[in-house]
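Encode chain A's predicted structure.
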Amino acid sequence: MNFTEALRETWQFFSGGGLFMFLLALCSIAALTVIILKALTLTRLKILPDRLGQEVEKFEEHLEAGTLNDLQQEFSRGENSLSRLCSVALRNAGRTQGEVQEAVQSSAREEIVRMHSGMPVLEVVITIAPLLGLLGTASGLVTVFADLDDKEIIGLGIAKALSTTIVGIAIAVPSVIAQSYFSRKIETLSARLEVLLGRVVSACHQHVFFFDK
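Encoded structure for chain A:
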């Protein structure tokens, strides 16, 4: 089978699904777009760089040694979630610990929402892709059984009708895998952010005199 024949058979396979196959194609495009965007944006470099995380772990040491200026400048640039949240903590330093925690938590919720952006699209695709496939199959079977005279045509019609179910499941499976992977990654990064920010807030409260200068 040459490339042209393979392309023709592929086109016939997808075109046989009619409207439902078109809707499944839209689902696959939406899922692929989200997966690519999350792969590009949900990285440690954009959320919690390892080097910055190590420096934040030594935040109290920097305070005591008076070497916080370079770290403050990096926070102010806001190039990742950790730096933006630490910047919020420093801007509110001098207030009570509860007030600082509240300010940081409010900003953290915004960062978490940003990390979850696109995930609802994957959840929708996971739900509706198999259902669209089943609808396409049911619709095709109704057409097939409308004419029971030719058994060969019935067999071909059933095979053609089942194509939408195959495509629906084929879209849902990688979407489930991607959704599970990204959800776990968000959970891990969020937990790490919480630990580091807790240290920053505690250090700001214990060394409030540094920020009152």
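The radius of gyration is 27 Å.
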